[in-house]
Design a protein that fits this description.
9 helices; binds S-adenosyl-L-homocysteine; binds N,N-dimethyl-L-histidine; 8-stranded mixed beta sheet; 37% helix
């Protein structure tokens, strides 16, 4: 096999991914209020659509987080004292380059980067691009699920585990608690955690970010039906669904849903299910929670972390925070 310049390990064998998809679809589509977990958005097309979303004028999180990294990446890497960067849900690893520049300057030949994601396409295209820019960096790709495979993280050097893009907002509160506890359990005394978290702001800014004028977020949401049709042989008619993005003030999260525009019956042979939807009925496909500093501090403290740094943009729309074991 020709050398790619990075190592690749797949810890999501096809049957695991299929079993997990089937279990999620059965649980979500037989629930009284139907739902599906967001990790199934990210097939090849879904990962590309997410990258398109990051470039939309309405979608402020990516550019805002990038602006904070542009200003503070060196400070963050110095405060973390790391020579290994591990990124969870790395996607295109684009913003990560700002951290990698600082890490390479600080740790030179000792520097290494491990990207972890469920999407093989995203991992391979990100790492191939990084190899060309960072010839001295040791680069690895790990295809794994951060909701229950954090024990796979290698224990090498002083590690900075980064979770950028506010992907933490896509967990519900119970999942978030479990994720933070499990991450904390795996950290050693010299390790740190860098968290990108989107902050509460006006719904006038939030809602268009999840319901853009060009319809890219709608296409990203509807692509989930294509994933079910392809992988489970289902016959959802995507033309009969519409994209919905709502701000839920009591939970302080955006909820994305797919709404049936007519009564329908869909077969999902891959799991032996017949799904009935009434006109107007919705399937919840994602929550995207927004945070306030005191709430985040409480949650991380309860999980056993101590704050080492907090950075934000001028408008205080997005935060990057650094945590070590308490
Ligand atoms: N961190 C990048 C990408 C965010 S998109 C950024 O800030 O732009 C969310 C990423 O998390 C996608 O690449 C998706 O494939 C990945 N992802 C979603 N659920 C996951 C899971 N359970 N385990 C691992 N990766 C996951
Ligand atoms: C990956 N995640 C943080 C994105 C978000 O903003 O919640 C996913 C997304 N959904 C719609 N637009 C972007």
């Amino acid at each position: 096999m020709p050398s790619t310049g990075y190592t690749y390990a797949d810890h999501l064998p096809a049957d695991f991914s299929d079993r997990s998809l089937r279990a999620d679809v059965i649980a979500g589509l037989t629930a009284p209020r139907k739902w599906l977990p967001p990790k199934w958005f990210y097939d090849k097309i879904g990962s590309e659509l997410f990258e398109d979303i990051t470039r939309l004028p309405e979608y402020y999180p990516t550019r805002t987080e990038r602006s904070i990294l542009t200003e503070h990446a060196r400070e963050i890497i110095t405060a973390a004292g790391a020579n290994t960067l591990i990124e969870l849900g790395s996607g295109s690893s684009e913003k990560t380059r700002l951290l990698l520049d600082a890490l390479s300057d600080r740790a030179h030949d000792e520097a290494s980067y491990l990207a972890l994601d469920v999407s093989e396409d995203a991992l391979r295209s990100a790492c191939a691009g990084l190899v060309a820019t960072y010839p001295r960096l040791r680069i690895g790709a790990l295809r794994a699920d951060f909701t229950h495979q954090l024990d796979l993280l290698p224990s090498c050097g002083a590690r900075l585990v980064a979770f950028l893009g506010s992907t933490i907002g896509n967990f519900d509160p119970a999942e978030r608690t479990e994720f933070l506890r499990s991450l904390r359990d795996g950290l050693g005394p010299g390790d740190c955690f860098l968290l990108g978290a989107d902050l509460v702001k006006s719904p006038d800014v939030l809602v268009p970010a999840y319901d853009d004028a060009a319809g890219v977020t709608a296409a990203f949401n509807l692509n989930l039906l294509d994933v079910l049709n392809q992988r489970l042989d289902a016959d959802f008619d995507r033309a009969a669904f519409e994209h919905v993005a709502l701000w839920e003030p009591e939970n302080e999260w955006i909820e994305m849903r797919l709404r049936a525009t007519r009564d329908m019956v869909a077969e999902v042979p891959g799991v032996g299910l017949t799904v009935h939807l009434d006109r107007g009925e919705t399937i919840r496909t994602e929550i995207s929670a927004k945070f306030r500093r005191p709430g985040l501090t409480d949650e991380l403290t309860a999980a056993g972390f101590a704050e080492r740094g907090w950075w934000t943009d001028e408008q205080e729309w997005f935060s990057l925070s650094l945590w070590g074991p308490a």
